[in-house]
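A further point concerns the way the authors explain their paired sequence and structure data. Showing the layout once, in full, would remove most of the difficulty. For illustration, here is how one protein appears when written out as sequence plus structure tokens:
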Amino acid sequence: MLAGCTNLTTLLLTDDTKSSVYLKTAHHDIFLEIVAWLTSCKKLRSVTVRNIRGGQDLMTPILLANDIHLANLELRGYAMADARDFHQALANHTSLQELQLQGDSDEGGDGVATLVESLSQLVHLTELRLQDISDYFTDEVLGRLAQSLPKLEGLYTSGWGVTDAIWGDMALLKSLHRLDIAALSRFTANGILDFIINLGAGNKGLVLAIMMADVDCDLTEREQMTIKDTISAQVDGRFEFQLQRGMTFYQID
């Protein structure tokens, strides 16, 4: 039925039941038919896949197709441990401007390194939203992304043990308008202020949200007010701050 629908520009695939069926192995013939159909849709520009087990396997052939040029891609409900091919294929799709990934991360192995290597090739990205899949991103990883993706206007990321070491690289993002750091973080008021005073005209209206600060690195009310006043004066921006309770910081090697 869908074979003739090849002029699509926008596609949403979702499984609201969150089925445990892994299409690629349980119904391989159907999986191949869907892949053949998807890769025949040469006009696709925006694809969203939510809560389909093995959804990353459906997306990988699209990313590897040199005659499909997606601008927007969203994938939710997958696992890093099963997504090496998908993450590697991302590097082939440099047309991407907006990318959202949500899935289970993996502290061991080279999953984080593979993902970061590919993300760093997507130099036209203006929006990057990483939820859960980035739980083990460190200062070094976030710094590399900032250095590699100069067109970013919006960045949402989780992470672990993030510190003031990221601010110098984040200040390189001259078009950044929103930065959400949902990572267990250990920022200081001085570090945040140093970042803010290096913002320029292209950052006008910046919203800086720190949502999981380590309780041992709490900012006083006076420090928060100073930051809010400074970002407002510098770029007419806004500062949001929230502690993460019930988690203990440890260093990831």
